[in-house]
Amino acid sequence: MGLIGSLYRSSVGKKSFMAASGLLLSLFLLTHLIGNSISFLGREAYNAYAEKLHSLGGLVYIFELGLLALFLVHIITGILLYFENLRARPARYAVNSCEGGRSWGSRTMPYTGVIILIFIIVHLMNFHFTDKSVPVSDLVRNLLSRPGLGLFYIFSLVAVALHLSHGVWSLFQSIGINHAKYNQLLLKGALVFSIVVGAVFILVPLLALVSRSFLL
Length: 216
Ligand code: HEM
Known about the structure:
Elements: H1 2-9, H2 11-37, H3 43-54, H4 58-87, H5 89-96, H6 104-107, H7 109-127, H8 136-144, H9 147-174, H10 183-210
Helix pairs in contact: 1-2, 2-4, 2-9, 2-10, 7-9, 8-10, 9-10
This protein binds protoporphyrin IX containing FE (HEM).
Protoporphyrin IX containing FE binds at residues 29, 32, 36, 50, 53, 60, 64, 67, 116, 120, 123, 127-128, 136, 140, 153, 157, 160, 201, 204-205.
């Protein structure tokens, strides 16, 4: 604990925690995205996938606890870094003036973070703390075809994409993948990744809103 504690007390250490938790959360998001994409194959395939996941029983609880810990580390460290940056404003501007530091994604990081937090609370109420005997295809279709909720999902998923666009770029910097020759490429890679993730996620509420046959 001593080494982790003293690492966490420094700004660079906190950025490493942010990067490691961000990387693991992005991997979760990617697997969740692949899982959600099964909904495009139809209700049977999607329900079979969800049932398979639930059949893992105890493993799912361990996974969920790990996920909760990751979200908490990411949120608490993000808040601490935000206030540290506010206190050291000149340094913050120096950081922001580097390549990739002044994008829409970077400027909106705290706001998109708050939107994602609100989204996750609503999302867990919708799909996690709910009647698990209802087929997941019916849950997704019934909830996301409601205009208010469907549009809230689309809005939040745009925030997820914006957050990722800067988060993934920052992650590269924090783990030392930083070279003038490749930075533009890394920046574009992070942007393409976030657009693809955002677009595929958004397809689900979009189809629920506009398609008569999606998941039926
Ligand atoms: C169109 C977008 C999305 C859809 C349709 C969707 C759907 C679902 C469903 C059906 C579940 C419940 C799985 C089950 O227990 O059977 C779930 C769980 C969850 N989702 Fe999503 N999701 C979406 C986007 C997201 C995003 C963007 C995030 C994170 C930023 C996220 C985070 C979570 C978390 C943390 C859980 C709980 C995991 C667990 O219980 O093990 N979801 N989602």
